[in-house]
Each structure stands twice: as structure tokens, then as C-alpha cells.
Amino acid sequence: xxxxxxxxxxxxxxxxxxxxxxxxxxxxxxxxxxxxxxxxxxxxxxxxxxxxxxxxxxxxxxxxxxxxxxxxxxxxxxxxxxxxxxxxxxxxxxxxxxxxxxxxxxxxxxxxxxxxxxxxxxxxxxxxxxxxxxxxxxxxxxxxxxxxxxxxxxxxxxxxxxxxxxxxxxxxxxxxxxxxxxxxxxxxxxxxxxxxxxxxxxxxxxxxxxxxxxxxxxxxxxxxxxxxxxxxxxxxxxxxxxxxxxxxxxxxxxxxxxxxxxxxxxxxxxxxxxxxxxxxxxxx
Length: 284
What we know:
- By secondary structure, the protein is an alpha/beta fold.
- The N and C termini lie close together (11 Å).
- The model has no long low-confidence stretch (mean pLDDT 93).
- It contains eleven helices and eleven strands.
- It has a single domain (6-278), classed as Aldolase class I (TIM Barrel).
- An eight-stranded parallel β-barrel has the order 1-2-3-4-5-8-10-11, surrounded by ten helices. The protein has a three-stranded mixed beta sheet with strand order 7-6-9, with no helix packed on it.
- Helix content is 49%, strand content 18%.
- α9 links the parallel β10 (205-207) and β11.
- It has helices spanning 6-16, 28-41, 51-57, 59-71, 87-96, 110-125, 157-167, 191-200, 215-223, 233-246, 256-278, and strands at residues 20-24, 45-49, 77-84, 100-103, 130-135, 139-142, 145-147, 171-174, 179-180, 205-207, 226-231.
- α3 packs across α4 and α7 (157-167) packs parallel to α8.
């Protein structure tokens, strides 16, 4: 299928009460794993590229890989920029064929975040591209973006309402207790805050830093209105874990295909598991 915008898959998810998985890609094998998992689960899927992925693979490779993957399967695929850092980078991704972009202005004061995000929405919507904004900062580290626990703060519901009204974003990433990367302990999500935000905000809500969040917490977040869930760390763990398991038994192996094949299979398995958890199986 051709790539589709984010609002197309999240609109259906919001009406039917499930979440769509947004899975980060870094190489061909992970793109293939995401596409295969989505096709096998008959689920819509968001393939997203972070700052690290863009620096590692380059925009041209990422776009070519995702477009080819989407062409070979029958489910809706969104190509999404994760944590866009500037207006210029967003424009570059749109020109390269991304169907959705995130502009992360959460490090700025509210007024500046609104101004920057509204500017991105205006240019993106003019060409049919969806926009995700962020309000509130999420702790942890993702690629070169780091927010200490002291700096992290939760999203204010009233500010969220104003932010969405004044920017026109298609989806809003909020901070309710998740973190990027591996958790030091078990995360505790502020579900009351999520309820308030969902009641005030008309657009779908996004949960970042979802790897390592207990399944029951994910299910509750979906029940309370989360419609896009980001997963990266769990994929990396499965992918690299399979390689580490393979190499000791095959110390003389020099064919990267043989080494990466079980890694791709492990990534596919964890992605299928997440898709089922989010409730998006058979929703394509």
C-alpha cells in the first residue's frame, strides 16, 4: 500500500478504542520486522525514524526502505519523524516523503512551543502531512536527546487544551510518568492526569517511552484514550539479544545474513506481541 498520514490511522483507532504501535527503525532488518509483524497481525503500523536513525542510515535510505516495505504489504503504514528538532528538519523530512512529523518543542516555554508547532502544522497540513506535538518532558535518554529526572515534568491538562486549540496538531505526546530507554524501576503512570487530558483534548494522545511499561498499565492507558504508543528499546533488546545468543554457538560465522536473520525474527516476535497488547490486531 502507499504510505498514509498519521491522522488516518489514529482517527480510526480513536473511534474504535485501540492504539497503533509506533516502532523505531534503524536498519533494513528492523524495517522488515515491523512490516512483517504488521502484515501477520493485519494491523496498521507507524514506522518512525529518530534523530539517531537519520544520522546512521540517512533520510534517503530510510524513505526507500519504508516505501518498499509498505509496497509489499496490505496494511496501512505511516512514515513518521520521531522527535523532530527544528522547522528545517521537518521540512526536509516532508520533502523526502514522510507522511507524518513530530516537532518536539517541549524544551521551550509554552508560548514558544505553541509558535513553533503552529508553524509546522501550517506547512505540513498544506501538503497533507500529519503533525504530532509534545507538551511536558519525558525523562530518560533517546539517541542524543536527554532529560534528567529533575528536569522531567508532567503535562498540565489545561495547558494541553490550550496547546491543541492554538496549534491544531493531529496528535499530542504527553508526559504522565514514562521515560525513554530502560527503566531503573517499575514506572507508575499518572492515570488521573491522563483522564483529565483526554477529557480536554480532542486529538489522539501519544505515549512515548513505553518499552518496559507493564502490560496492565499499557491496557489501562489505551482504555483511557492513548492512541499511539512508541516502542524502541524493546526492539533493540530483542534484536541484539538474539545476536548475542547466536554468536557463542557459531564463533566462526562470517555471513552477516545468518547472524541477522534470528535478530530479525526476534524483533518481529516482540513487535507482534506489542501490536496484540495495543489492541490493533485485525484493525487494518
